[in-house]
Amino acid sequence: MTDETTVRLGFFLGIFLVMGVWEQVAARRPLTVSKGGRWLNNVGIIVLDSVLVKLAFPVAAMGVAAAAAGSGWGLFNVFAVPRVPAVILSLLLLDMVIYLQHLMFHAVPTLWRLHMVHHADLDIDVTTALRFHPIEILLSMCIKMTVVAALGAPVIAVLIFEVVLNGTAMFNHGNVRLPEALDRILRLLVVTPDMHRVHHSVIIRETNSNFGFSFPWWDRFFGTYRAQPVAGHDGMTIGLSQYRKPDQVRLDKLLLLPFVGNPGHYSLSSIGRDPLAILPRR
């Protein structure tokens, strides 16, 4: 096992365990469906994603960063940007790209079909953070690796970014409660659970807000920030309007969802429309 894999796996397991225990002792919302069934679906798709990524990208983003450094590819290598500024800029720019990518997966109908697998979860917790359709994961990896190569991001910056992105995603999807005063301070620096939970509302104007994963600044800068859900965190409904039954979002059906499912009108191009309406045939 490489040092990179050891570091990433160690942080993943540690944060996953902490969030799982935290959800158990201080849940923000009561669950609406069986946790066992949901976790079976979510963990199943996470394992499948991990296997496919390993098969498709043996070197992944870290390998691309190392190759770029060795060959002098990318912006920061061509202009010999000092190490510390290159690391900081890499972290900021990579996170902004993830924000824009997330926005794109809501705006483009074909990509939304893939992304609605993430949103169709009937509750939200630490496992939701990693529940994505395999095709979306593969596309995301291609985008990430392309940006790493274009920037010439330092290897250490990519490692830090991967750990931070993975860790903050599990944190901000957590079904956990933070004191309101602490949440107000934290969300100036990092996307908090109460901030991101708004994004998983069935209400379309809330679904199309708070796209950030790690840093909260892009939502404020680009005008997609929404402080709280209209119904409050205890009253809001999680998921998609057209998928309200556990049987509709089993693992086998999740994998087929982008191809045969009803996308509703959640894309940015249809903002304000009835999310239950079926898209017109062309």
Structure overview:
The protein is mainly α and 282 residues long. Helix content is 60%, strand content 0%. It has one domain (29-268). It has helices at residues 3-25, 35-56, 60-71, 75-78, 83-107, 109-119, 134-151, 155-172, 180-186, 193-197, 204-207, 217-222, 232-235, 251-260. α2 (35-56) crosses α7 (134-151), α3 (60-71) runs antiparallel to α8 (155-172) and α5 packs across α6 (109-119).
Mean pLDDT score = 93
N/C terminus separation: 51 Å
What is the radius of gyration computed over CA atoms, rounded to a whole number of angstroms? 19 Å
Give the beta-strand count.
Answer: 0
Helix-residue proportion? 55-70%
**Poorly predicted ranges (pLDDT <50, ≥5 residues)?**
none
| DSSP strand content | under 5%
| Gross morphology | globular
Q: H/E order of the elements?
A: HHHHHHHHHHHHHH
Largest sheet: none
Query: What class do helices, strands and sheet pairing give?
Result: mainly alpha
Tally of contiguous helical segments: 14
Domain count:
1
Task: Please tag this protein with its features.
282 residues; mainly alpha; 60% helix
Give the helices and strands, then pairings:
Layout (H helix, E strand, L loop, with lengths): L2 H23 L9 H22 L3 H12 L3 H4 L4 H25 L1 H11 L14 H18 L3 H18 L7 H7 L6 H5 L6 H4 L9 H6 L9 H4 L15 H10 L22
